[in-house]
Amino acid sequence: MSRDRELLDTVEGGPQHAMSLADIKEEEGLPKADRKPYRPWAYNLAKTDVYIPRLAPGKQRWFAAVTRAGTKQQLARVLVLAQNAETGQWEMVSTVDIDDPQGLPQILLDADGYATAVDPASPKLSAPVGTLRSAVGDTFTTGGSQVFTPTKASERQAKVHRQAVAKFGKRGTTRFTAGKAQYPGAYALKTATGTLVIFSHTHVQDDAVAEPGLRIVPEKYDRAWLGTTPSPAFTYTFTCSDVADVPAAAGPSSLLGYGCRRTDAKATGPSTAV
Question: Residue 28: what are its φ and ψ, rounded to 5°?
């Protein structure tokens, strides 16, 4: 699977690349000439909306933010920061680029300016987070889902499926399966039309040759995990962040954005060095 494209925030000091631990590991597997210089994240607070929910005592403290960038504010990213219960430190637990910022629903605020937190697993939601997570898995596995209405983000996921299953032609196969979420936590806020849900999912990609004697050569961004030794089969694990707009009434939800990073890869067949 090719790397998902990253939107760049145009902020003070110029464009900034979002850099995850997975990105750092991939960079280590690249020749130095191909490595991009790392620049810390920075956001222009004048172009950022912060949404702080009222939370019951004892609940994990968290808040969301939407930062916008670009000459016409055409780029948007949803951030979630949560307080670590053990250390008390605030950590960024999710960052998701929105494919179509105009589709981002209005997050409701009360008279004091607070947002309203919603239980993302509540059966009262027309699509609880478990349903959303399964629907994303279905899109990668089969190329579509009945839960989501077509959006740019869901079409990107379906395109990944189509391109991956066709990339080897008759010489090999690619199969996707849903994995156990590495980060099962989810966050949700009440909107003017329903609920905005921020969550993560994990999916697995299995590539295998179709005939004895054939081998798959690790691609450029796989080499931090796999090196350069070919194998008849590889298994890749992807950890992804997602944002969905869930309507108040029964009906399809909308996937507004997602981003995936390869977080593991391993050979699953006997290798043959070249």
Answer: -65, -25
Task: Pull the structure tokens for residue 86.
Answer: 């053990």
Neighbouring C-alpha atoms within 13 Å toward the C-beta of 208: 9
- Closest to 81 measured CA to CA, from 96, 66, 93: 93
Distance CA 104, CA 96 (A): 12
Segments of the chain assigned E as strands:
9-11, 14-16, 48-51, 53-54, 62-69, 75-83, 90-98, 115-116, 148-149, 172-179, 187-190, 194-209, 233-247, 253-267
Taking the C-alpha atoms of residue 191 and residue 112, their distance in angstroms, rounded to an integer, is 16
Mean predicted lDDT score pLDDT of the chain: 86
Paired tokens of 1: 């699977």
53 bridge partner residues: 115
Q: For residue 139, give the DSSP letter.
A: H
- For 198-232, how does the pLDDT look when each residue is reduced to its tens digit (9 = 90+)? 999 999 999 999 999 999 999 888 888 899 899 99
Main-chain phi, psi angles of 142, to 5 degrees: -115, -10
pLDDT at 270: 65
Spatial distance between the Cα atoms of 141 and 162, rounded to a whole number of angstroms: 10
Q: What is the DSSP letter of 47?
A: G
Here the tokens at position 122 are: 């509540």
Question: CA 32: distance to chain centroid?
Answer: 27
pLDDT-derived band at 5 (thresholds 50, 70, 90) equals very low
- pLDDT tens track for 184-195: 999 999 999 999
- Partnered with residue 27 across adjacent β-strands are none
Antiparallel, parallel or unpaired: β 115-116 and 75-83: unpaired
pTM listed for this prediction: 0.86
Asked if the model's pLDDT at residue 75 lies above 90, the reply is no
